[in-house]
Design a protein that fits this description.
There is one protein chain. The protein is an alpha+beta fold. It folds into two domains: about 100 residues, Roll (Pdz3 Domain); about 200 residues, Thrombin, subunit H (Beta Barrel), CATH 2.40.10. About 15% of the residues lie in helices and about 45% in strands. The protein has six helices and 27 strands. The strands form six sheets. Strands 5, 6, 9, 10, 11, 12, 15, 16, 17, 18, 19, 20 and 21 form a 13-stranded antiparallel beta sheet that branches. The radius of gyration is 29 Å and the shape is elongated.
Length: about 400
């Protein structure tokens, strides 16, 4: 009898213990899953699996939690580590972007003209636009004029050249015979090359503690191949906006910007799918935006369809705020297309027609928090485009 009673008691305790764990798990986690159908402009429908959870209970907890699972568990204490909230200065300022590529970028072909015909030695050897030339006959090359000089010297000696090239994630070797060009009075292989890239974009954020910044919200790519540029180094310089080419359906508009000077505002250390990142060395640019204080950031789960604002410059360096509507939110995309946004501000529509080139990186603010940046424009509807979550930019910056 005692044995049976003890056995039943043990089973009852185990059952009660299981019920307690399940009950507490439901209370603490409290998540519900929903599936939302996202319709893209090209009628490509995807299903985004997302979850929403109530976080109000977390705000009510002290850093030290005391728990007692009825009378079956001994009292215990645990410490909940609370991360310090991230505060960032929102940008909107135009910035000049100067990059030196890691190697020499092939951007096209230029025929070598001798006395009788046009020749294409490099193209015939299989060199393609978008290839990056790393070395010539095992000699590393960084500058385009350095490559041209080596090719001419080796060609004058009657030597073939061996090019080490990078094509996406592969390393290839190509052997080419330089040809004398009558037009340039030098030996050439028939390539158009460059060792740098430049343009004007928009600053997204600056971390006031580390002075780390993010800009653009998307990668800098080769215009011909759309492949990411591998960079050796780069710098931000001061820029301003001189004019606007208004966008029309089928024809994207653009900001017409210029470099104000060649003085570095900061370094460019990373070129990623979520933007460019580096360290700011001149803090004066922080005074040239809408707000003079940093803002809290919003997590992706806090972003919702509804009204918001963007910060951007249309004239000189003056940053202003403009109203937009967030039409859709996609929690799963990792390609800079987390939000569909529509320009609603009458003045911005009057001046630009909507989202224009050069606006990439313009910060998006919702409920007083920095939530992301403008990244793309819909070609057939320039009033609409995409935005990236700020948390995805911060993750890429690490």
């Amino acid at each position: 009898m005692n044995h049976r009673f003890t056995s039943n008691l043990r089973r009852n305790k185990a059952f009660i213990c299981l019920l307690c764990v399940l009950f507490l798990s439901m209370c603490i986690i409290g998540t519900s899953f929903t599936a939302e159908s996202i319709s893209q402009p090209d009628n490509d429908y995807t299903t985004a699996l997302s979850f929403s959870s109530s976080t109000q209970w977390m705000a009510d907890l002290d850093t030290t939690l005391s728990m007692r699972f009825f009378t079956l568990f001994p009292a215990q204490k645990t410490t909940a580590e609370q991360k310090e909230p991230i505060m960032l200065y929102p940008g909107g300022q135009p910035v000049g972007i100067l990059l030196r590529t890691d190697g020499i970028l092939v951007v096209g072909y230029s025929p070598v003209k001798n006395e009788t015909k046009e020749l294409h030695p490099a193209q015939s050897a299989g060199i393609q636009a978008g290839d990056i030339i790393l070395s010539v006959n095992n000699t590393q090359v960084i500058h385009d004029d350095e490559l041209a000089m080596l090719i001419n010297e080796l060609g004058a000696q009657g030597s073939n050249i061996s090019l080490e090239i990078q094509r996406q994630n592969r390393t290839l070797y190509k052997t080419i015979t330089p040809v004398y060009c009558n037009e340039t009075d030098s030996y050439r292989i028939g390539l158009l090359i460059r060792d740098n890239a430049g343009g004007v974009g928009t600053l997204t954020f600056v971390n006031p503690k580390t002075m780390q910044y993010g800009a653009l919200g998307h990668m800098i790519a080769n215009n011909d191949t759309q492949l990411k540029l591998s960079i050796l180094n780069g710098k931000l310089v001061a820029a301003d906006i001189q004019g606007i080419k208004k966008g029309l359906p089928g024809t994207p508009g653009e900001k017409i910007g210029r470099f104000v000077n060649n003085t570095a505002l900061g370094s460019i250390d990373k070129n990623t799918s979520a933007g460019i990142f580096g360290t700011l060395t001149d803090s004066h640019i922080l005074s040239e935006t809408v707000t003079t204080h940093p803002l809290h950031i919003a997590t992706s789960n806090e972003v919702y369809p509804g009204s918001a604002t963007i910060y951007t410059a249309l004239d000189g360096m003056q940053v202003n705020s403009y109203t937009v509507e967030i039409e859709k939110v996609n929690l799963t995309n990792r390609d800079g297309k987390n939000m569909v946004i529509r320009i609603t501000d009458p003045e911005l529509l009057r001046q630009t027609g909507g989202i224009v080139q050069g606006m990439s990186g313009s910060p998006i603010i919702q409920d007083g928090k920095l939530i992301g940046a403008v990244t793309h424009v819909f070609i057939n509807d320039p009033t609409r485009g995409y935005g990236i979550f700020i948390e995805n930019m911060l993750e890429a910056a690490e």
